[in-house]
Amino acid sequence: MAAAGLAGLFAVYKPAGVAWGRVRDAVETRLLRELNAAPGRAPRQRVRFLPTPAPGGGGAVELVATRVPVLADHPLVRGPRFKKLKIGAGHRLDVKASGVFVLGVGHGNKLLTDLYNCHLTKVYIVGGLFGKATDDFSDTGNLVEKTTFGKKLI
């Protein structure tokens, strides 16, 4: 069940050093918190006949029709209305990479395949450091080789 018709695609920025799954989970948690906190509709009320003292006094009691809320609709009683959302990632970014990736919510997950099959152009910006080589070709790998540069050869 899609939460209140919540479906579609949206872009999310992922900073470097954070796994894409954690970003996805954070988005799901935030959406669920907002969906469960938002008042979906006015609380149901029920008519009850409550005994009240009669205006004349003398210990007489009369029944008066009163509207009282149905406590079964209270969030503390029923718990969260939405517990899980279907959220999928269109593509995944490495932990060390930063950038924008697409998330699909609800029926928007079906559109992720179409988006992937479009073969959209991706832009990569790569940084490097001249003169150092590591065992895994990353900035956090063990240094294997170091060299100097900067002198012109004529």
UniProtKB/TrEMBL annotation:
Coiled coil: none annotated. GO terms for molecular function: pseudouridine synthase activity; RNA binding. SUPFAM superfamilies: Pseudouridine synthase. Pfam families: TruB_N. PANTHER family: PSEUDOURIDINE SYNTHASE-RELATED, PSEUDOURIDYLATE SYNTHASE TRUB2, MITOCHONDRIAL. Belongs to the pseudouridine synthase TruB family. This is TruB pseudouridine synthase family member 2. It comes from Catharus ustulatus (Russet-backed thrush). The gene is TRUB2.
